[in-house]
C-alpha cells in the first residue's frame, strides 16, 4: 500500500521558487496499477521521484506498506529504492560508456545477487534486445535505450515498478510489447505498477488513474485508489 499525505514540492527559494506539487494525497492498494496523467509541467515526474525515494518532498508524507519513507535514515531510503522499487526514467539515466549488459546488472550487483548474467540475458530477451547486450549504450537508438531502461528496472523483480513515459520513444509495436511486459508483471507477480503516460491508449488500460494539473490532483478514478 502506498499512502501519500499532502505532499508538496517547492523547487528553488525565494522569488525564484516554484511549487511543483501542492498537497497531493492519495492511497493506492498493493498490487494495483495506476496511471498518472497531466500536461507537461503538471508535476508527474516530481511525484514519481518522491514516491520512488529519489527526491524528497518539501512537506507531507509518503508511507509504503505502513512505513513512512522520507523520515527514514538515508541508508534505509537507499535500501527501499534499490530493493523494493524499480524505476524507468523519462531520460534514461544509463551509463553511456558501459555496455547494455553492465547497465542492466547494476540493480543485481547492489543487492549482491548471484547468477547475474543469465538473469540479465533473460530480461534482455523479454525486451527483444538481447543482440545488443555487448554494445556500448551510447550507440543505441532512443527506443533501444528505453527498452534497456525497462530491462534494468524489472530485472530484480521490484515490489513497486515506477515508469515515467516508458513508451514515449517507442514505435507502436515495440511500445505494445513493453506494455505487455509491464502489465504481465503487475498481474502475475503482483508488482504494483505506477506509470506516467501521455499515451491515451495506454492510459485506458489502467484500472486506476489520477490527473494532475499545476501540481494538484484534479480528477481520479479506480477501485484500488482513494484520493
Ligand atoms: N529542479 C527543478 N528546479 C526548478 N523547477 C523544476 C525542477 N524540476 C522540475 N521543475 C518544474 O516543476 C514543474 C513540474 O515538473 P515535472 O518534471 O514534474 O513535470 P511533468 O509533469 O513530469 O512534465 P513532462 O510531461 O514535461 O515530463 C515544471 O514546471 C518544471 O519546470
Ligand atoms: Mg516528466
From TrEMBL:
GO terms for cellular component: membrane protein complex; plasma membrane. Residues 2-225 form the ABC transporter domain. InterPro entries: AAA+_ATPase, ABC_transporter-like_ATP-bd, ABC_transporter-like_CS, ABC_transpr_LolD-like, MacB-like_ATP-bd, P-loop_NTPase. GO terms for molecular function: ATP binding; ATP hydrolysis activity; transmembrane transporter activity. SUPFAM superfamilies: P-loop containing nucleoside triphosphate hydrolases. Keywords: ATP-binding, Nucleotide-binding, Transport. PANTHER family: ABC TRANSPORTER ABCH.1, IMPORT ATP-BINDING PROTEIN. This is ABC transporter ATP-binding protein. It comes from Candidatus Kerfeldbacteria bacterium CG_4_10_14_0_8_um_filter_42_10.
Amino acid at each position: 500500500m502506498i499512502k501519500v499525505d499532502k505532499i508538496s514540492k517547492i523547487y528553488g527559494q525565494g522569488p525564484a521558487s516554484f511549487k511543483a506539487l501542492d498537497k497531493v494525497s492519495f492511497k493506492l492498494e498493493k498490487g494495483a496499477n495506476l496511471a498518472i496523467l497531466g500536461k507537461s509541467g503538471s508535476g508527474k515526474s516530481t511525484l514519481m521521484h518522491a514516491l520512488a525515494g529519489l527526491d524528497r518532498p518539501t512537506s507531507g508524507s509518503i508511507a509504503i506498506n505502513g512505513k513512512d519513507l522520507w523520515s527514514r535514515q538515508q541508508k534505509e531510503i537507499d535500501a527501499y529504492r534499490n530493493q523494493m522499487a524499480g524505476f524507468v526514467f523519462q531520460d534514461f539515466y544509463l551509463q553511456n560508456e558501459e555496455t547494455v549488459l553492465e547497465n542492466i546488472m547494476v540493480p543485481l550487483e547492489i543487492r549482491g545477487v548471484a547468477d547475474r548474467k543469465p538473469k540479465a540475458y533473460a530480461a534482455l530477451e523479454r525486451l527483444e534486445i538481447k543482440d545488443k547486450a555487448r554494445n556500448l549504450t551510447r550507440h543505441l537508438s532512443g527506443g533501444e535505450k528505453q527498452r534497456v531502461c525497462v530491462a534494468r528496472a524489472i530485472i530484480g523483480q521490484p515490489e513497486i515498478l515506477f515508469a515515467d513515459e516508458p513508451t514515449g520513444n517507442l514505435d507502436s509495436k515495440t511500445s505494445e510489447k513493453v506494455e505487455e511486459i509491464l502489465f504481465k508483471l503487475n498481474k502475475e507477480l503482483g508488482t504494483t505498477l505506477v506509470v506516467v503516460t501521455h499515451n491515451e491508449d495506454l492510459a485506458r488500460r489502467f484500472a486506476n488513474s489520477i490527473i494532475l494539473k499545476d501540481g494538484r490532483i484534479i480528477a481520479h478514478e479506480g477501485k484500488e485508489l482513494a484520493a
